[in-house]
Structures are given as C-alpha cells and as structure tokens.
Specification:
Blueprint (H helix, E strand, L loop, with lengths): L2 H9 L2 E7 L6 H11 L8 H6 L6 H12 L5 H17 L2 E8 L1 H5 L5 H14 L3 E9 L4 H11 L8 E5 L11 H9 L3 E6 L5 H9 L5 E4 L7 H9 L3 E4 L1 H6 L11 H6 L4 E3 L4 H4 L3 H11 L4 H13 L5 H15 L6
Parallel strand pairs: 1-2, 2-3, 3-4, 4-5, 5-6, 6-7, 7-8
The structure holds zinc ion.
The site of zinc ion has 6 residues, from strand 1.
EC number: 3.5.4.2
GO cellular component, one term: cytosol
Keywords: Hydrolase, Metal-binding, Nucleotide metabolism, Zinc
C-alpha cells in the first residue's frame, strides 16, 4: 500500500466493535499480574508464553487464552488490563470501543462478578476513549450457566449495554441460547453473537431469527449462502470482521485470500476489528494495515470501513454523528466521501 494511504488509515478516527478484553492481555502483563497475585504459570518466561501463541485452530487458542486469564483475580487486575487496552486503542485513533468481557471465565474461578465489572468499567470511565461493555456468554457452557451469569450481573445492569456469545462455535449453535437472549432482550440490552466464523452460514441465520441479534461477530462465511448474503445486506446487519484473527485461526490461508473485499462488494456493512489483539498479532490499526497491504483497497474503502464502525456502533445517534462529522472533516482533504 502506498505511504499516503497507510498514513490516512492509521490516523483516521475509528470505532472498534469486536475486542475481547481478556484477549488484550500481553504476555508481559500476564507475568506481572501472576507475580503480584502469586499465581504459578505453566510457562517459564514471557518468551515461552509468546512462543506458545502458534495455535492451529480456535480450540488450541482458547486453551492458552484461559491459562492467561487465570492471573486475573482482583478488581485492580481488571482495571490494569482494560487501561492497557484503552491506551493502545487511543494510539490507534480509536474514538469509541464496545468491549467484550467473559465473566464466566472469572466467576468460575471464584472471582466476584462485581470485581470483574467494576474493574473494567472504572478503567473505561477514566479513559479519554469512549467505551461501553458487552457481557459475553461462553457458548461451550450450558444455557443454564449463561442464565445464572446474566442474573448475577443484573445488580450492575447500568455498567453494560448488551450481551454477546463467544468461545467455541462449532457444535454450539445460537439456538442453544434462545432463552437467555430472550431474557436479555426483555431487559433492553443490545444483542450480538459470534456466528459464521468456523460455524456454517446457518448459524448466522439462527442468530438473526432465534436470538434477534443486531450485529454478527465475524460472519465471514455468509458469502456461502447467496440468499442470506442479500438478506444481511438489505437489513444492514453489520459484520464485525477480524482479519488477523481469521488468518491466525486458519479461517483463511493468508490475508491475500481474505474475503473482506467480496463482503464489501456484496453491499454488507463491514467493520474491521482486532478480536484478541495480544494473541492474534495486532491491535485494530495492525488489522487495517494488514488488509490494505494485501487486498486491492483504496481511499473510499478506508472511509467506508471507518464510517461503518461508527454507524454499526450502539452509540446514541447524536454521538455517532459527532464522530462521523470528525471523520468527514478528516477525509475532506482527500477528495472522498
Ligand atoms: Zn471474537
């Protein structure tokens, strides 16, 4: 990609809509927290942990992800993790982020729900970046566990804006969580779900029809079903695509083979996100730079991707417009919009 386009993409204002806060834990912070909390890690050094990041698929990644999360015990640990991510996001010109967190990963280890939510929320409140929280259910666990988790989080209802569904997709279709999503909907929470990453397009359809989600996380396999693609485009259901994650988890062999441009050409509302940035090789700007370096994308694509990130957010309309106005002003110098 040419130097000017690289500069524009890096510096343009953007939102991030698909980032798991536990996936922002860098090996250095994992070791620092392990030392602070007296946790013994199954890796002798920061370097050994980094080397273990050569996963083959979603499951081998998740095994390391849960080992890393085991150092998070106190409210301050969640604060420090979140503050570190928000600093990185700010450096990438992220104006707004909707952060996923996995309470079951922590409550199952005896960490109180309040410590998880307060620590993450307090860091968001202290940041210059606009940040809201989406509570995610681990889909490899039961729906009963998800229902109990939602109830346990209700005393902190004002601290999160929505619920999501993550972890191992294949074999755990969205409809497994119909009741807990219906309950979240009654509570006025926003709804999202991972679907169509490793799982089939049918999971995207059931996330829409059974769970009534407003965005699809990943969703790259939608193109395997032409009718579904037309529907997702017509309904303006945004896809939160995570390019480096897709390549690292072998959803695509390499970035040149990523279907991002086909998704955009199909009229879909596509956004770029980092998923688990500490594990997948980069924060949001690294994801933008990787696709712009490997695919025939130009200035208009850069603008569209950034604008989509704001329009697909759950911000109030006035806040969306404020950021889009800033984006328009930024691009005004480059003859696009
Ligand atoms: Zn994800």
């Amino acid at each position: 990609m040419n130097v000017q386009l690289q500069h524009i993409v890096r510096n343009m204002p953007k939102a991030e809509l698909h980032m798991h806060i536990e996936g922002s834990l860098e090996p250095e912070l994992i070791f620092a927290l392990a030392q602070r909390n007296g946790v013994q890690l199954p890796y002798p050094s920061v370097e050994a942990l980094r080397e273990a990041y050569a996963f083959q698929d979603l499951q081998s990644f998740l095994d390391i992800y849960y080992a890393g999360a085991s150092v998070l015990l106190k409210e301050q640990d969640f604060y420090d993790m979140t503050a570190a991510y928000l600093d990185r996001a700010k450096a990438d010109h992220v104006r707004h982020t909707e952060i996923f967190f996995d309470p079951q990963t922590h409550t199952a280890r005896g960490v109180p729900m309040g410590d998880v939510i307060h620590g993450i929320h307090r860091a968001c409140a202290d940041s210059e970046v606009s940040a809201t929280l989406i509570l995610c259910f681990l889909r490899h666990l039961s729906e009963e566990d998800a229902l109990a988790t939602l109830e346990a989080a209700l005393p902190y209802r004002d601290r999160f804006i929505g619920v999501g569904l993550d972890s191992s997709e294949v074999g755990h279709p969205p409809e497994k969580f119909a009741r807990v999503f219906a309950r979240a909907r009654e509570l006025g929470l926003h709804l999202v779900a991972h679907a169509g990453e490793e799982g089939p397009p049918a999971y995207i359809a059931s996330a829409l029809d059974v769970l009534h989600v407003e965005r699809i996380d990943h969703g790259v396999r939608v193109l395997e079903d032409a009718a579904l693609t037309r529907r997702v485009a017509a309904e303006k259901i945004a896809l939160t695509v995570c390019p480096l994650s897709n390549v690292k988890l072998c959803v695509f062999d390499d970035m040149g083979g990523h279907n991002l441009l086909q998704l955009m050409d199909a009229g879909l509302v596509v956004t770029i996100n980092s998923d688990d940035p500490a594990y997948f090789g980069g924060y949001v700007n690294a994801n933008y730079e990787a696709v712009f370096a490997s695919l025939p994308l130009g200035l208009q694509h850069a603008y569209d991707l950034a604008k989509n990130s704001f329009t697909a957010s759950f911000l109030p309309q006035a806040d969306k417009q404020k950021f889009i106005d800033e984006l328009d002003a930024y691009f005004a110098a480059f003859n696009v919009v």
